């Protein structure tokens, strides 16, 4: 099963990558930009595997670039306290 097929596994996967990036000294701005790029790639290139991803893809598709950055930043906040540290 892919991490994209289960919302909780996806959040844990993102959290682990976020903590790794923070431990490697990546700034908040760099993490924010990466989150935006990943969100844009997923929304445009990867089929949603669950209802939560479908909602995010739908929101992304109607959002301005500024709103897409906000969505990406909210995803970072959502996973900040999940996953391993």
UniProtKB/TrEMBL annotation:
Taxonomic lineage: Bacteria, Bacillati, Bacillota, Bacilli, Bacillales
Gene3D superfamilies hit by this protein: Protein of unknown function DUF3243 (1.10.760.20)
Protein name: DUF3243 family protein
InterPro entries assigned to the protein according to its UniProt record, in alphabetical order: DUF3243, Uncharacterised_YmfJ, YmfJ/YflH_sf
